[in-house]
Records
---
Amino acid sequence: MSFKRKITLKNGDCLKELKKIKDGSVDQIYADPPYNLSGKTHQTVQSGKPVTLNKGDWDVIDDIDEFNFNWVSECIRVLSDNGTIWISGTLHNHPSIGTILKKLGLWIINDVVWYKRNAPPLLSGNRLAPSVELIWIASKSKKYFFNYELGKILNDGKQMRNLWEINAQRHLTKHPTEKPENLIERIILLGSKKDQVILDPFMGSGTTGVVAKRLSRKFIGIELDREYFDISKERISRVNSTKVILTDKKLILDKDKSEQVLKNIEDN
């Protein structure tokens, strides 16, 4: 499935679909892979009662290290020499990804801590309430694109740090791990230029594609689940304007800063 402005959506297994993409043809990758949280021995709380955690069959993986090694390797093959890969995770998946990035000889740029100021409280009283997710940033070499100046603009003229305070948002779709658009917007703005190719191998409900299209990037999205693929396809098709829409409320309220950001985007 393809839309105008070179939006390509693929319904299938990411390993099989990634093999069809040319070496070095992608400028930035954002991946939100399964965290392997689901299973008969995994529990969560609903309505105050413990229940088996089941996000879907796609979140049940026998060998998480092998799974991660295979898809990350394919992503690195298709990534350009000056591109970057951004991978979301939690403590359940993040260490595996970090080890694999090192094994593959990649240059690890940052580990971003996404702090959710409004994370829900924990009902049980035997551990700390989870309030963060983690994002690895890596490249093939030290010669990668990173929009440092835009990062400063977004951060009131100061160096942007690797602790990002971004509120969790009400999901726009039924996908259980949907990410906020303003989180993805920041990632794409910092790691790519206009008309470059963004790849999301675990597209989910299509947030990366929505933001990429809005920011005038080309996009390749891969999703295994047919229901979520259809949600993505419909959601991305509704983005009929390539005008930049800054989803950070502070930027919308600050006219001068918004104009700086828009100029920086056009210059790049």
---
Amino acid sequence: MPQTSLAQLATIQISVINESTVVTDSEVIPVVAALQKQVSNDFRPAWGTGAELTIVAKNTQPPAGSWWLVILDDSDQAGALGYHDLTTDGLPMGKVFAASDLKAGTSWTVTASHELLEMLADPNINLTVFVQNENTAGILYAYEVCDACEDDSFGYQIDNVLVSDFVTPAWFESFRAEGSTQFDRMSKIVNPLQLLPGGYIGIFDVTAGSGWRQQTAEKRVSSMKQRGAVGTRRERRDTPRDQWVMSLPQRKIASNAQQYRQHLQTIQRRRDAA
């Protein structure tokens, strides 16, 4: 059978939109360059999906047909501006909550890498792997490629930008023997379905009737990030697809963003005057 070359693999157009008040455009530019290298050099050979990332200038409409990676302060800002579950074209969208990361002491660049790679691997947030443990029972594992090794301590540097580790397709193959292949980019994982410290994965027990829940390396949810804020992939996976909401038109979002920033400035002036 003829081999597929990298040139023949799918390439997705990704619009990177910075609406955060804590991350400047000048800080975003080198991060996007590093993410492009990660996708092209590391992720695409392992997963067969590539992307071209383009930063969208302020008050500019993202190209039609592109997926979005939006950098925001937190989930409250996402709702205030009108960034919901999908782009205005109904296409996949990832959200990076930079202020939430800064407050938690975690890296927003790792989160950006995490969200980008998971969006490329499972854009509709509906893929799973089934592991049958009995004739009538089994577990569905969410097809999330960074959760198992998501802690900043397992990330790696590209041009001085910290990006997320990610698993390979072999991580989801339960028949693999210990140490038999590469299970993640940084070779920290030695078994399929293994969770590193700080890692987690969404699981669905098909007979329990309890819906999606997070399985963690520590056997408990150890951070707010693992709970899944409104608008995250974890929250959306637990929401029926017909209840997803498309984002507002970009002109409306730009107007909302201006009002949001003015509101923040008013709050700050009141604090300074108090």
